[in-house]
Predict the 3D structure of the following.
Amino acid sequence: MINAPLKREDSLAKLRDTPPWDVLIIGGGASGLGAAVDAAARGYRTLLIEARDFASGTSSCSTKLIHGGVRYLRQGDIGLVRNALHERSHLLRNAAHLVHPLAFIIPAWRNIDRVFYGAGLKLYDLLAGWQGLAASRSLNRQEVIDALPGLRRAGLCGGIRYWDGQFDDARLAITLMRTATDLGASCLNYLPVTRLIKAGGRVAGAVLCDAESGEEFEVRARAVINATGVHADSVRRFDDSAAVPLLTPSQGIHLVVDADFLPGQQAILVPKTEDGRVMFAIPWQGKVLLGTTDTPRPELSQLEDPQPLDEEIDFLLRTAASVLSRPPTRSDIRSAFAGLRPLIHPDNKDGKSTAALSREHAVLVSASGLITVAGGKWTTYRLMAEQVIDRAIEVAGLPAVPCPTRTLKLHACPTQPGNDVYGTDAPLLATLPGHDQPLHPAQPYNAAMVRFAIRYEMARTIEDVLARRTRALFHDAVAAEKMIDRIAGIFAEELQVTEERLASLIEAAHESARRFMAAQYSGG
C-alpha cells in the first residue's frame, strides 16, 4: 500500500506532453472510480477525471446499503439480486473497514405478512447461497420489541429478521480513488471535460479545463469511457449532438434524525409504502437514516445539487410515523439530502413512475467508439467496472488481461473487520497535527482528519471535507456549519490559498450547509 501525499500539481503535470493514455474515464462516482481501479489493476495507463469532487453527486447520497435488494425480488429481477448478493460478499472481504453486516427487521402487523415476507426472504437466502451472512428467521412479537425498542407496538404480531450490508458511500469512493492511485492511475477532481477529441471519426480523447486555474489540457486515449451517471447524456451529446436520451432521472431523498428515534443496532424495512417503494429506518454512524423516495425528475438531469421536495420530506415523516413509537418532525431533522438515480428507460415518455424501474446497468458503445456505462447501483459497481473494461479492451484493441478485482483488497483494508473507516491508515492519521483537537463537541472529527483529507485524499474545498472526507454535513448540518472557520484555517495552512480563494471556499461551505439543513425550515 502506498501512502505518499497526493499532490494535484504532480497529477496535472502528467497531462502535459505525455503519450496517449490507454483508458480515459470521465466521471468520478462509483462506476467511474470502479472502472479506474479495474483498468489500473490490469496494468493499463489510466486517467480518471471528475468535473467536481469525487462522489459529489449521487454516489455520496445513497441509502448506505450494500445489498441484494429485497424489493427487486417483487419485481422479478432475480439476476440483479443474485449478482448484487455475490458482489456484497466481495465488498465485505475487500473493504472490511467500510462495509459490515447489518440486521434488518420487517415488522408484521398481520400474520399473513409474516408468512409472505418470510417466504420471500428464504428465496433471498437461497440466492445468496454460501455467501449469505445469516439465515433469515421469523420473530415473535416480543422478539421484535426487544430488537426494536423504538417501534410502534399497537397491533404488532411479529416480524422477519434478515441480514444485508451497510457502508459509508463517500468514504468507499475516496478509497477507490486511493486504490486506483496505488495501482498507478492518475485521478483528478475539479477537471471538467469541455469537448471530445475525434480522429478519423473516432473518439480519441478529450479537452479538459482545470476549474481552479483555467488551464486547458488536450489528452489522448485509446479508450474513452463515459461514467458520468445522470450526466451521461450530456457527454453523449459531446460525441453526437443528436444522441437520443438514454436516462430518466429519478430523485431519492434521505432524512437524518437522532439515534433515540430507533435505539439499538438493527434496522427497519417497511416493505410497502404509498409510493410503491420500500422505506428504511437505519442506524448509521450514531444517527438514524430515513429513506428513500422515488420521484421522477427529468428536468433535473443537469442539476448539480438537487434538493428534497416538501412532499418527499412529508412522505418520509408520515411513513416513519406509521412505524415508530415517537414520530420525528421537521424540527428533529439534523440533515436532509437528495440524489439523482441514472435510470435507463428511453421509452418512458410519460415520466410518471420510476419506482418500478430496474437498477440494471448497461454498457453501450457509440459509432465513434465512446463507451458509456449507465444505470446500476453501488453494490454492483465492481461488476459494472469489470464489464466496461472488458468492453474497452475490445473497442480499443488493448492487450487482453483478465480482471483481478474479485479478490483485490482496497486501500487500507485491514486483515480483520473494524469500525475505523481509515483502516490501516489510522496510525498515519495519528501522527498528524491536531489528532487531539476536536472540531466540534457533537461531531467525531478532529483537525488531523482535515489535514489527512488535504494531503492524502485530494480534498480541495471545505465542502469536500465536511461532506465526503468526513460525513459531518450528513450527520448534523448545523454542527457542521460551526466547523467551517476551523477547517478554513487548516486549508490556509496546508494549501497556502489566497484570501480571496479562502473567502470563496468559506461562502461555498456555508451555502452547502444551508442546503443540508433546509428541510428543517421549509414546508408547512
